[in-house]
Amino acid sequence: MRFEASDTGAMEAFGRDLGAVLQAGDVVVLTGPLGAGKTTLTRGIGAGLGIRGPVQSPTFVLARTHPSLVGGAPLVHVDAYRLGSAALLEDLDLDFDRSVVVVEWGAGLVEDVTDSWLEIVIERPTGASAVVARAADADGDGARDGDGDLDAALDADEPRVVTATGYGPRWAATPYAARA
Ligand SMILES: Nc1ncnc2c1ncn2[C@@H]1O[C@H](COP(=O)(O)OP(=O)(O)OP(=O)(O)O)[C@@H](O)[C@H]1O
Ligand SMILES: [Mg+2]
């Protein structure tokens, strides 16, 4: 399943819709470059699940558990950026069966801990480098301004291409199923 999230709100809305169908035992893997929108999507998933926020970039903790406010499964939000190996993911001893687990940078790690997962790849078609170049020359005269607000430019709404592919029995009969 592939679509374009035109802005931050569209990404959160996709997450909310997805969160509404996720259940305990589900694992979602988010892949995409820095600032792609992985945490933004996780925030939407959290809203769809009805968990207690706020969902933030797990900078100092590798995994954060958000309890449900509606009697459903908690959201376990993992940042595997510094984790690097499936063994370390296993060491976190997460309660996969009873939680919805979302792993940023989890590609290639979750295969060892679950037989089914939903992989979501987020791409910035415009490319971060193009955004950086534009930020450096905000007035567009071809010369570097030196006062471009890089952070604002990186955060500004721009489309993302989102591809969601489900692997394993959990996703087989869903629109996300990977085509054999
Ligand atoms: N179409 C879009 N979809 C999602 N986020 C967008 C979009 N357009 C702009 N943004 C902005 O891009 C930023 C994405 O940041 P976010 O923290 O979600 O990325 P990330 O992939 O988690 O980064 P990191 O790798 O650092 O964890 C946010 O500031 C968000 O508002
Ligand atoms: Mg993030």
Automatic annotation (TrEMBL):
Record bears the keyword Magnesium: yes
Subcellular location: Cytoplasm
Gene Ontology BP annotations: tRNA threonylcarbamoyladenosine modification
Xref: InterPro entries: P-loop_NTPase (IPR027417), T6A_TsaE (IPR003442)
A GO CC term assigned to this protein in UniProt: cytoplasm
Keywords, sorted A to Z: ATP-binding, Cytoplasm, Magnesium, Metal-binding, Nucleotide-binding, tRNA processing
GO molecular function terms listed in the Swiss-Prot or TrEMBL record: ATP binding; metal ion binding
Source organism superkingdom: Bacteria
Cleaved signal peptide residues: none
Coiled coil: none
PANTHER family in UniProt: TRNA THREONYLCARBAMOYLADENOSINE BIOSYNTHESIS PROTEIN TSAE
Family: Belongs to the TsaE family.
Described purpose of this protein according to its UniProt entry: Required for the formation of a threonylcarbamoyl group on adenosine at position 37 (t(6)A37) in tRNAs that read codons beginning with adenine. Is involved in the transfer of the threonylcarbamoyl moiety of threonylcarbamoyl-AMP (TC-AMP) to the N6 group of A37, together with TsaD and TsaB. TsaE seems to play an indirect role in the t(6)A biosynthesis pathway, possibly in regulating the core enzymatic function of TsaD.
Protein name listed in UniProt: tRNA threonylcarbamoyladenosine biosynthesis protein TsaE
Source organism of the structure: Agromyces cerinus subsp. cerinus
